[in-house]
Amino acid sequence: MYLLIAGGGKVGTNLTRSLLRDGHEVTLIEQRPYRFEKLEAEFEHQVMRGDATELYVLERAGIKRPPDLLVAATGDDEDNIIICQLAREKYGVDNVIARINDPRNQPYFDLLGISPTVSATGAIMGLIEHEVPDHGLIHLLELRKENLEIVELTIDDHANAKGKRVGGLKLPEGARVISVVRNGTAEIPDEQTQLQVGDQVLAILEPGKEDELRRVLLRD
Question: Which residues contact 81 (CB under 8 A, 6 or more apart)?
Fold first, then answer.
Protein backbone atom coordinates (compact mmCIF):
# COMPACT_ATOMS: atom_id res chain seq x y z
CA MET A 1 0.00 0.00 0.00
CA TYR A 2 1.19 3.53 -0.81
CA LEU A 3 0.62 6.15 1.89
CA LEU A 4 1.25 9.87 1.98
CA ILE A 5 1.77 11.40 5.43
CA ALA A 6 1.75 15.15 6.00
CA GLY A 7 3.51 16.24 9.18
CA GLY A 8 6.80 14.90 10.49
CA GLY A 9 6.22 15.40 14.20
CA LYS A 10 6.14 12.49 16.63
CA VAL A 11 2.86 11.16 15.22
CA GLY A 12 3.91 11.29 11.58
CA THR A 13 7.39 9.97 12.31
CA ASN A 14 6.20 6.99 14.34
CA LEU A 15 3.56 6.19 11.73
CA THR A 16 6.14 6.28 8.97
CA ARG A 17 8.55 4.11 10.90
CA SER A 18 5.87 1.51 11.68
CA LEU A 19 4.46 1.43 8.15
CA LEU A 20 7.86 1.04 6.55
CA ARG A 21 8.64 -1.77 8.95
CA ASP A 22 5.44 -3.48 7.79
CA GLY A 23 6.54 -3.25 4.17
CA HIS A 24 4.40 -0.33 2.95
CA GLU A 25 5.54 2.45 0.64
CA VAL A 26 5.43 5.81 2.42
CA THR A 27 6.25 9.42 1.59
CA LEU A 28 6.49 11.77 4.57
CA ILE A 29 6.21 15.55 4.12
CA GLU A 30 7.75 17.96 6.65
CA GLN A 31 8.33 21.69 6.19
CA ARG A 32 10.48 22.59 9.22
CA PRO A 33 14.16 22.59 8.15
CA TYR A 34 15.62 21.33 11.44
CA ARG A 35 13.03 18.56 11.65
CA PHE A 36 13.44 17.60 8.01
CA GLU A 37 17.20 17.10 8.45
CA LYS A 38 16.64 14.62 11.27
CA LEU A 39 13.97 12.78 9.29
CA GLU A 40 16.12 12.66 6.16
CA ALA A 41 18.93 11.08 8.13
CA GLU A 42 16.59 8.24 9.09
CA PHE A 43 14.24 7.87 6.12
CA GLU A 44 16.42 9.26 3.29
CA HIS A 45 14.46 9.60 0.02
CA GLN A 46 11.14 8.70 1.69
CA VAL A 47 10.85 12.12 3.30
CA MET A 48 10.60 15.42 1.44
CA ARG A 49 10.64 19.00 2.60
CA GLY A 50 7.72 21.33 1.94
CA ASP A 51 4.36 22.71 3.02
CA ALA A 52 1.74 20.02 2.39
CA THR A 53 -0.96 22.65 1.86
CA GLU A 54 0.84 23.67 -1.36
CA LEU A 55 -0.20 21.89 -4.55
CA TYR A 56 3.29 21.57 -6.00
CA VAL A 57 4.54 19.97 -2.77
CA LEU A 58 1.75 17.40 -2.79
CA GLU A 59 2.40 16.64 -6.45
CA ARG A 60 6.14 16.21 -5.89
CA ALA A 61 5.26 13.80 -3.09
CA GLY A 62 3.24 11.67 -5.51
CA ILE A 63 -0.37 12.57 -4.76
CA LYS A 64 -1.32 12.25 -8.44
CA ARG A 65 -0.78 8.48 -8.32
CA PRO A 66 -2.96 8.75 -6.08
CA PRO A 67 -2.00 7.25 -2.70
CA ASP A 68 -4.17 4.52 -1.21
CA LEU A 69 -4.38 6.59 1.97
CA LEU A 70 -3.43 10.10 3.00
CA VAL A 71 -2.82 11.00 6.65
CA ALA A 72 -2.91 14.67 7.65
CA ALA A 73 -0.98 14.62 10.92
CA THR A 74 0.35 18.15 11.25
CA GLY A 75 0.07 20.14 14.47
CA ASP A 76 -2.31 22.63 12.84
CA ASP A 77 -5.98 21.70 12.42
CA GLU A 78 -6.54 24.25 9.63
CA ASP A 79 -3.69 22.73 7.64
CA ASN A 80 -5.06 19.24 8.17
CA ILE A 81 -8.45 20.33 6.85
CA ILE A 82 -6.90 21.94 3.77
CA ILE A 83 -4.69 18.93 3.06
CA CYS A 84 -7.61 16.51 3.28
CA GLN A 85 -9.85 18.71 1.12
CA LEU A 86 -7.20 19.05 -1.56
CA ALA A 87 -6.48 15.33 -1.53
CA ARG A 88 -10.12 14.36 -1.93
CA GLU A 89 -11.49 17.05 -4.20
CA LYS A 90 -8.56 17.86 -6.49
CA TYR A 91 -6.66 14.59 -6.62
CA GLY A 92 -9.37 12.00 -6.01
CA VAL A 93 -7.86 10.39 -2.93
CA ASP A 94 -10.67 8.23 -1.55
CA ASN A 95 -9.26 7.53 1.90
CA VAL A 96 -8.04 10.25 4.26
CA ILE A 97 -7.38 10.32 7.99
CA ALA A 98 -7.04 13.61 9.85
CA ARG A 99 -5.43 14.38 13.18
CA ILE A 100 -7.39 16.80 15.37
CA ASN A 101 -5.25 18.74 17.82
CA ASP A 102 -8.05 20.75 19.45
CA PRO A 103 -11.30 18.77 20.02
CA ARG A 104 -13.24 22.02 19.69
CA ASN A 105 -12.47 21.90 15.96
CA GLN A 106 -14.21 18.55 15.46
CA PRO A 107 -17.42 20.20 14.10
CA TYR A 108 -15.45 21.78 11.25
CA PHE A 109 -14.10 18.42 10.16
CA ASP A 110 -17.61 16.96 10.44
CA LEU A 111 -19.12 19.79 8.41
CA LEU A 112 -16.69 19.11 5.57
CA GLY A 113 -17.18 15.35 5.80
CA ILE A 114 -13.55 14.66 6.71
CA SER A 115 -13.55 11.25 8.32
CA PRO A 116 -12.16 9.36 10.10
CA THR A 117 -10.49 11.75 12.51
CA VAL A 118 -8.21 11.03 15.45
CA SER A 119 -7.98 13.19 18.56
CA ALA A 120 -5.52 12.24 21.28
CA THR A 121 -7.30 14.53 23.73
CA GLY A 122 -10.67 12.95 22.96
CA ALA A 123 -9.25 9.45 23.31
CA ILE A 124 -7.71 10.22 26.70
CA MET A 125 -10.94 11.85 27.88
CA GLY A 126 -12.79 8.68 26.94
CA LEU A 127 -10.41 6.65 29.07
CA ILE A 128 -10.81 9.08 31.97
CA GLU A 129 -14.60 8.88 31.70
CA HIS A 130 -14.35 5.09 31.77
CA GLU A 131 -12.53 5.23 35.09
CA VAL A 132 -15.10 7.55 36.73
CA PRO A 133 -17.73 5.26 38.23
CA ASP A 134 -20.57 7.78 38.36
CA HIS A 135 -20.06 9.30 34.93
CA GLY A 136 -23.13 7.54 33.54
CA LEU A 137 -22.81 7.45 29.76
CA ILE A 138 -19.44 6.97 28.08
CA HIS A 139 -18.80 7.52 24.38
CA LEU A 140 -16.76 4.58 23.10
CA LEU A 141 -16.79 4.94 19.32
CA GLU A 142 -18.14 7.35 16.72
CA LEU A 143 -19.01 6.04 13.25
CA ARG A 144 -19.25 9.38 11.50
CA LYS A 145 -19.93 8.13 7.99
CA GLU A 146 -22.81 6.00 9.27
CA ASN A 147 -24.01 8.76 11.65
CA LEU A 148 -23.92 6.33 14.56
CA GLU A 149 -22.07 5.99 17.83
CA ILE A 150 -21.48 3.29 20.41
CA VAL A 151 -21.88 4.18 24.08
CA GLU A 152 -21.54 2.38 27.39
CA LEU A 153 -23.82 2.75 30.42
CA THR A 154 -23.52 1.03 33.79
CA ILE A 155 -26.63 -0.20 35.58
CA ASP A 156 -26.63 0.78 39.26
CA ASP A 157 -29.09 0.42 42.16
CA HIS A 158 -31.06 3.47 41.06
CA ALA A 159 -31.18 2.71 37.31
CA ASN A 160 -34.59 2.62 35.63
CA ALA A 161 -33.55 -0.49 33.71
CA LYS A 162 -32.54 -2.52 36.77
CA GLY A 163 -34.33 -5.86 36.68
CA LYS A 164 -35.96 -5.17 33.30
CA ARG A 165 -35.65 -7.32 30.21
CA VAL A 166 -34.04 -5.86 27.12
CA GLY A 167 -37.15 -6.59 25.07
CA GLY A 168 -39.25 -4.43 27.40
CA LEU A 169 -37.10 -1.31 27.21
CA LYS A 170 -38.55 1.67 25.34
CA LEU A 171 -35.33 2.64 23.61
CA PRO A 172 -35.05 5.69 21.34
CA GLU A 173 -35.94 5.03 17.73
CA GLY A 174 -33.05 3.32 15.97
CA ALA A 175 -31.17 2.52 19.20
CA ARG A 176 -30.11 -1.05 19.95
CA VAL A 177 -28.48 -2.79 22.90
CA ILE A 178 -25.63 -4.72 21.31
CA SER A 179 -23.79 -6.16 24.30
CA VAL A 180 -24.05 -6.68 28.05
CA VAL A 181 -20.85 -7.14 30.04
CA ARG A 182 -21.47 -8.96 33.32
CA ASN A 183 -18.69 -10.01 35.70
CA GLY A 184 -16.15 -9.36 32.99
CA THR A 185 -17.89 -11.51 30.38
CA ALA A 186 -19.63 -10.00 27.36
CA GLU A 187 -22.72 -11.50 25.80
CA ILE A 188 -25.01 -10.52 22.95
CA PRO A 189 -28.38 -9.96 24.62
CA ASP A 190 -31.76 -11.12 23.38
CA GLU A 191 -35.18 -9.83 24.35
CA GLN A 192 -35.22 -12.04 27.47
CA THR A 193 -31.90 -10.80 28.87
CA GLN A 194 -32.57 -9.25 32.27
CA LEU A 195 -30.38 -6.33 33.27
CA GLN A 196 -28.74 -6.48 36.69
CA VAL A 197 -26.85 -4.06 38.92
CA GLY A 198 -23.26 -3.80 37.72
CA ASP A 199 -24.05 -4.65 34.09
CA GLN A 200 -22.18 -2.60 31.53
CA VAL A 201 -24.55 -2.05 28.63
CA LEU A 202 -23.22 -1.22 25.16
CA ALA A 203 -25.68 0.43 22.81
CA ILE A 204 -25.54 1.81 19.28
CA LEU A 205 -27.59 4.88 18.40
CA GLU A 206 -27.68 8.11 16.46
CA PRO A 207 -25.74 11.07 17.91
CA GLY A 208 -28.02 13.40 19.85
CA LYS A 209 -30.17 10.65 21.38
CA GLU A 210 -27.90 10.06 24.36
CA ASP A 211 -30.18 11.85 26.81
CA GLU A 212 -33.17 9.75 25.74
CA LEU A 213 -31.16 6.57 26.18
CA ARG A 214 -29.86 7.74 29.55
CA ARG A 215 -33.44 8.34 30.78
CA VAL A 216 -34.53 4.87 29.70
CA LEU A 217 -31.60 2.95 31.15
CA LEU A 218 -30.41 5.09 34.05
CA ARG A 219 -32.51 7.87 35.60
CA ASP A 220 -35.23 10.29 34.49
Answer: 72, 98, 108, 109, 112, 114
